[in-house]
Amino acid sequence: MNRIDNAAMDGSARRLLLLTGVLGALGALLVGIGEFMMQFSPTGGYEAADYGYFAQVPAWRLSFGHFLGALAAPLYLAGYLHVYLAMRPAPSWLRNTVLLLGIYGFVIGDVWLGSRVYLGLIVQAQAGGLDATALLAQAAAHNEPLIQVVRVVIGLASLLFVGAVLSRRTLYPRWMAAFSPIALLAAVFVSYAIIPAIGVYLLPTAMNIAHFTFFMLSLLVLARRAG
What we know:
The protein is an all-alpha fold. The chain has two domains: 1-130, no CATH class; 132-227. The chain is 77% helix and 0% strand. The chain has nine helices and no strands. It has helices at 3-8, 11-39, 59-72, 75-86, 92-128, 132-166, 181-194, 196-202, 206-226. α3 packs antiparallel against α5 (92-128), α7 packs across α8 and α7 packs across α9.
């Protein structure tokens, strides 16, 4: 970045550029540590089709690496936002393509990383003679905390969304505040409790139902305003 670019960039834009770069680098570091903790075996054997090297990984290291990696991986998205910002003044289609490909790739990567622990648990169950009930309990202990994190994060984002809409600082009408993602998610759970004949179809994909409804309402509202 040359001096002219630095002069043209205001303070907030520069801070965002640097912050996203720091977060992206931090994400890569933490995910790298997590993946190392979860998969490192002093005897190697990573090429084995039966994933036998997981038998050499202590249970505490498998769990620590799993949660550190899965929770830090979204920081990669900030790194690609950093690249998107730094590519200016390249054409917008090019910057957007790099951003979207980076986001898509690392969302898939987080799914992959989050599932590695289950391969390790299966290998360790085979080596230790665990029964299916014990294996299921261990798998649940590595799975359920992640969706709780998602719910807390979406809840916080929804509160900020509601506050912004009610203060009229957005393009949305005030009634949209009643349809935040967390409110729609709660509605799905309520439907299962009150009208189980309907809720039984909605609950298995509750977070997706909530966000599909939210995004569709957003599109309809903004399309009407744009028209």
